Amino acid sequence: MSNLNKILKNKNLCKSVWFMRQAGRYLPEFRKIRNENKNFVELCLNSEISSEISLQPIKRFDLDSAIIFSDILMVPYALGQEVTFIKNKSPKLSEFNFKKFRNNNEKEFSKKLDPVYKAINITRKRLDIKKSLISFVGAPWTLLIYMLDLKKDNNKINTSKLNKNKLLIDQILNDLTQYLRLHIKNQINAGADVVQIFDSWSGLIPNENLTKFSYSPNSELVKFCKTYNVPSICFPKGLKENYETFNNLVKPDGINLDYEIDPLWAKKKLKDVVIQGGMDPKVLYKSSIKIHREATKYIQAFKDTPYIFNLGHGLLPETDPDKVDKLIKFYRNF
Ligand code: CP3
Questions:
Q1: How buried is 267 (Cβ within 10 angstroms: 0-12 exposed, 13-18 middle, 19+ buried)?
Q2: If 0-12 CB within 10 Å is exposed, 13-18 middle and 19+ buried, where does residue 305 land?
Q3: Is 34 a catalytic residue?
Q4: Which of 33, 92, 113, 220 sits 20 to 30 Å CA-CA off 178?
Q5: Segment (H or E) for 135
Q6: Which of 34, 67, 70, 71 to mutate to test the pocket of ligand 1 (most atoms within 8 A of CB)?
Q7: Which residues contact 133 (CB under 8 A, 6 or more apart)?
Q8: Which helix (DSSP H) or strand (DSSP E) does residue 152 occupy?
């Protein structure tokens, strides 16, 4: 059994380290492949290259876990929306069409994403047995934000659009959750050891809708993973003090802190869960002394509890890989 899996199952076992977006633009070896593959969706659908990218940070840093190279927006892609990634801009999706969306079926969906499952399968075979292979999905709310273009800017949603389409949105969320279950199942069957559920925009959910848009759909996905005996890690980014309610209601095996959460608060309030991450990825732009000081805050806070070292969001493209290397060594020597 891989390390992360053991930690999540048996909470006394050794600690581990990996990073969100560890396979990405801050690595020159990724940028080289990316320059040769202009179409990001096609890149995600190339099982061989996707596997190679997933293993790049493992080769370079010997991290404890690999995360499969794909994107949360591959699900809307498989459900018929065109997805384009433009450099330094938010990804763009073609206009959502409810009729077309409802016309999807599970067989076609799985077939479209088959290259992702193949990538998981070959990566699991190439990865050291002691290391975990993490698969992931976007939570329904976060996918909805992109699918319906609900974001006004990084801090606001278009509430009138949300309220105007209430009934429609209930139906979309419902269907979407079913496809996400299928995507999780397919990834587990392909060899994934752990499932991370990214709810990157849960901070934008109006308070009165938290149950409907966050707690319920995340619970359903966590429960689904439990039926396969595969641990899940939730990342309800931006929930602030509602992280506590989230943890009590959703009961994931692991929870990823974002950089706004105070680690000491989390230690007190988040019970019966393995905590992961928390440190602001921007800290990696600072001097080694400052990086070590900040990392110490997290390592100290969680030294007596199972803790997976990671960040409070993904590694940023301008991060110096040498600083990542030094941080991993600092953590391991601590
Ligand atoms: O290393 C890994 O973490 C595995 C691969 C991975 C990617 N995206 C590759 C990627 C994972 C787990 C994701 C998750 C993802 N994608 C999330 C949830 C986590 C988060 O960051 O909040 C979200 C919201 C997306 C949607 C998305 N994909 C955005 C907003 C963007 C553009 C801006 C950005 O953050 O990079 C992407 C593109 C993307 N996904 C890149 C990579 C390596 C960069 C693409 C490029 O090279 O142009």
A1: middle
A2: middle
A3: yes
A4: 92
A5: strand 132-138
A6: 71
A7: 2, 54, 65, 66, 67, 68, 120, 123, 124, 127, 191, 192, 193, 194
A8: strand 151-153
Q: How many residues does the chain have?
A: 334
Answer yes or no: are the C-beta atoms of 162 and 150 closer than 8 Å. yes
- Whether 20 is in the pocket of ligand 1, judged by its Cβ within 6 Å, is yes
Residue 256's domain comprises 3-333
**104: number of CA atoms within 13 Å, CB side?**
22
Which residues are CB-neighbours of 62 under 8 A, at least 6 positions away?
A: 328
- List b or e across 308-327, with b for residues whose CB sees 16 or more CB atoms inside 10 angstroms: bbbbbbbbbeebebebbeeb
CB 242 within 8 A of CB 261: no
- Ligand 1 atom index nearest CA of 31: 47
Ligand 1 near 193 CB (within 6 A) = no
Predicted confidence (pLDDT) per residue in 43-89, tens digit = 999 999 999 999 999 999 999 999 999 999 999 999 999 999 988 88
The one-letter amino acid code at 258 reads: D
CATH number at residue 109: 3.20.20.210
Residue pair 63/22 in contact (Cβ under 8 Å)? The answer is: yes
Helix axes 321-333, 288-301, angle to 10 degrees: 40
Quote the DSSP letter at residue 314.
Answer: P
How far from chain centre, in Å, is Cα 26?
18
pTM listed for this prediction: 0.97
